[in-house]
Design a protein that fits this description.
With 267 residues, the protein is of the alpha/beta class. Helix content is 36%, strand content 18%. It folds into two domains: 11-190, Vaccinia Virus protein VP39 (Rossmann fold), CATH 3.40.50.150; 200-264, Helicase, Ruva Protein, domain 3, CATH 1.10.8.100. Bound molecules: S-adenosylmethionine.
Length: 267
């Protein structure tokens, strides 16, 4: 199926447009969008998801970086009185101004999905849930459990901020052009309670990053190579009843938090 009237897809902007209305319906249902919902869509593209969101939600804001697609959707603005279109880069868009309770729904451009996800999670106080189409591998890493090869920084940091459900996989045939990678839709329900305080959070993020910096080494050695004091890390592990030979990938989220607390006062 071709769309001769529409601007051609720009691969560099991650433009793989959804063409399957069933997938669109499933995404909107998963997001539990109602007439009370204020929704944010990142990358509305040719508007297939935007249209469904505008029908289901009270108000929709859609941020698109491509001026051609923005102009195309602006031309259809009369169809969507509850749509606010923004021409801009979601990586610098001010999420801090979103109304509290905004639900994010997006078929993300895969080339920036990880930094975008981290930015969105920083603003989780105003975002109760997100339904995101991601590269399947990224979805697996988000939801990965300790002790698996997918478990890493992305898993720990996202699971700290949200409860994650990998909802369903999406075939490449549901897009035009077809992506070269597999896709999946995930639901992230952000956690209301912050387990760590504002001082501990950056220390936790730094520790998790350093812990996985050298995956083949033990946690103690990986942290030592990243500038942590070996004796203090060993002491921290012992206080958690973990042997010094422990590797980062077996530590559960709560153990990373406890290790942060055990050694945080020194960093
Ligand atoms: N929502 C549409 C759909 O499902 O068919 C399009 C999804 S397509 C995978 C990603 C969209 O994000 C494209 O429209 C692309 O132009 C847009 N995009 C890419 N980078 C962006 C950025 N930094 N900020 C906002 N939109 C961006």
């Amino acid at each position: 199926m071709d769309f001769p009237d529409l601007p051609p897809a720009n691969k560099r902007l991650g433009q793989n447009f959804l063409i399957d209305p069933n997938i669109v319906r499933k995404i909107v249902a998963l997001a539990e969008v109602t007439q009370e919902t204020q929704a944010l869509e990142i990358g509305p593209g040719r508007g297939i998801l935007t249209e469904a969101l505008c029908k289901a939600a009270g108000q929709v804001t859609a941020v698109e970086i491509d001026p051609r697609l923005h102009a195309y959707l602006a031309g259809r603005q009369a169809e969507f009185p509850n749509l606010t279109l923004v021409l801009g880069d979601a990586l610098i868009y001010s999420f801090a101004e979103l109304p509290v309770g905004t639900v994010v729904v997006a078929n993300l451009p895969y080339y920036i999905s990880t930094p975008l996800l981290f930015r969105l999670l920083e603003h989780r106080d105003r975002i109760p849930r997100m339904v995101l189409m991601l590269q399947n591998e990224v979805a697996d890493r988000l939801a990965a459990k300790p002790g698996t090869s997918d478990y890493g920084v992305l898993s720990v940091m996202t699971q700290y901020a949200a409860d994650i459900t990998k909802a369903f996989r999406v075939s490449a045939q549901c897009f035009r052009p077809r992506p070269e990678v597999g896709s999946a839709v995930v639901l992230l329900r952000t956690k209301e309670r912050r387990e760590l305080n504002r001082e501990e959070e950056p220390k936790f993020a730094a520790l998790v990053k350093a812990a996985f910096a050298h995956r083949r080494k033990t946690l103690v050695n990986s942290l030592r190579d990243e500038g942590y004091d070996q004796a203090q890390v060993t002491e921290g592990l012992v206080s958690l009843n973990l042997p010094p030979s422990t590797r980062a990938e077996v530590l559960a989220l709560d153990q990373f938090m406890r290790l942060t607390r055990a050694i945080a006062s020194r960093y």
